[in-house]
Structures are given as C-alpha cells and as structure tokens.
C-alpha cells in the first residue's frame, strides 16, 4: 500500500514551491524542471508496493563469489606401513632343526648310528669309480631293539644325503646292494640283531684327500643332522 500521508506531503510541498516561486520558476530551464519531476516521481514510486515487487522479480543478482580459497584435505599419513621382510629379500631358506639320526628316521624299534667312512676307487665289483672319479663309502649300522623281526622301509621317505668335501657338495648315488643301502634301505632285521648299510658318493678324483668332509642327512622341510667324517 502507498503511504498516502507521505505522498500528500510531497505533493503539497511541490505545489507550495510552484506557487511561491513563480518568478524563479520562470528562470528554471526545461532541463532542471525535468530533473525535479523525475526526483519527485522516484520518491513516490519508492513507497509503492507493486513497484517494489516488480523490481524484485526483474532483478536476479548473481551469487557472490567466495573469496576464500578451497580447502584441501590432506591425506592421512599411513602409520601402519609394514616393515620389509628380511627373509624374503635375502632368499635364504629357514634353517632346519638339528636332531639325532634316530629322531630323524623315527622308526620305532630301530636305532641307527654312523660307524666310519672309506675313500677308495673300488668298493665291490659292482661299485667302481670311473675314470676321473673317486668313491666315498659312508658306513652306518642299524639295529633292532625289539623282541620280534623288524621291517624297515626307508626307500620312499625321500631322505637326502649330501657330502661336503672342502666346501664342495655332492649328492648320494644308489648303492645297488641287497638291502638298498642306507638311502634306499628296505630290509627285515631279526630281533636283537643289527645290519650294515652304506651310502655311496661319487666325487672328482681331486677330492680323494680332503681337508674336511661331512655328511648331512636331511628329511626335507623338517629336520637334519650333520655327521663329520673321521
């Protein structure tokens, strides 16, 4: 609604000015008269409700731009970085448990022991060193401590025998003996009796006079025992 009192006051003032300054009004240029008329009309329109609503619909001010820089959230630090695994980088296999021969074989009623070794070019007519070779024959003894015959079968156990001569390593060969040798032992031992079993190694002839020699008996992935030859 238009503030009628305010409009009437403005109109009254204009009329008084026009009547009181007739002489001066003559001196006003047409440009000044137009300015006074625009000013008066603007005052009246500012108090008109319909005019305000029309202005609000026409104006569409743009959203003020934020002068603040965008906030960047820092990535949280990873405090649970796993440590590098030393064993994986080194490539070394974990050490096997060192046990006795009997704990390695785990044959109930059977006991085994190292007896001696022999360095030679010929052991039997079937076991002979070839040209440029030398033989190491490692002797074991297996005994039956029970009161009845004991069947022993190590042929499928996959137990390995490795000979180390002055830092060089050699694998065992089949012995082709009746009981299969210690690495393929398959026999029956009478009650309270013992039996000889050997392991045969073929090495270069230059290794026939070693400074040091040892045999490692290994149950792969489980345990091992080392025997120093003397």
Explain briefly what this protein structure is.
With 230 residues, this protein is of the alpha+beta class.
The proportion of residues forming helix, as a percent range, comes to: 25-40%
- The overall pLDDT, averaged over residues, is 78
Radius of gyration: 56 Å
Show unreliable segments.
22-26, 78-88
SS-based class = alpha+beta
Shape: rod-shaped
**Tally of strands:** 10
Please summarize the sheet with the most strands: 8 strands, mixed
Query: Which strand order does the major sheet show?
Result: 1-10-9-5-6-8-3-2
How many helices? The count is 6
Q: Identify the quaternary structure here.
A: single chain
Which H/E pattern describes the elements? HHHHHEHEEEEEEEEE
Head-to-tail CA distance between termini: 125 Å
